[in-house]
Specification:
The structure is a single chain. The protein is of the alpha/beta class and 129 residues long. It is 22% helix and 33% strand. The chain has 3 helices and 9 strands; from the N terminus they run E-E-H-E-H-H-E-E-E-E-E-E. It has a 6-stranded mixed β-sheet. Strands 5-6-7 form a 3-stranded antiparallel β-sheet. Pfam families: DUF8076.
């Protein structure tokens, strides 16, 4: 299955891309409108969010969402693959379940996007730019 235009949230790599960056680097480049070669695979988003103090996660997600909305580094036709080490959970709201220290932790990754990600399969969801 190919990558869709927009933000692909996947737990299994959908496509091999020529460009792969860590989440922190991806958001830094996007914030400064630096060139991002697309399609791009972004790794470690779940670690970035998990390592953020739990009381600050909502604020961090809001800042990252604003970065995605405001960047000129990506156009509506670009494809970004967020490779997550966890499970997609699409119930009341879109979240990602990760395992840390033997316990399941839910991260509200859906808050990162303007529109709720649309689930395409058990391992793939897409949010539009």
């Amino acid at each position: 299955m190919p990558l869709h235009q927009g933000y692909n949230i996947v737990t299994e790599r959908i496509a091999d891309t020529d460009s792969e960056v860590a989440a922190l680097e991806f958001f830094r480049r996007a914030k400064h409108d630096e060139t991002l070669e697309t399609p791009v695979t972004v790794t470690g988003l779940e670690d970035l969010l998990y390592n953020t103090d739990e009381t600050d996660r909502s604020s961090v997600l809001s800042k990252l969402r604003q970065t995605l909305r405001g960047t000129r580094s990506l156009t509506s036709g670009d494809a970004v693959q967020f490779l997550i080490d966890g499970q997609l959970v699409d119930d009341v709201e879109f979240r990602v379940r990760i395992e840390r220290s033997g316990e399941g932790v839910y991260l509200d990754v859906g808050q990162l996007f303007v529109e709720e990600p649309m689930t395409i399969g058990a391992t793939h969801a897409v949010a539009r730019k």
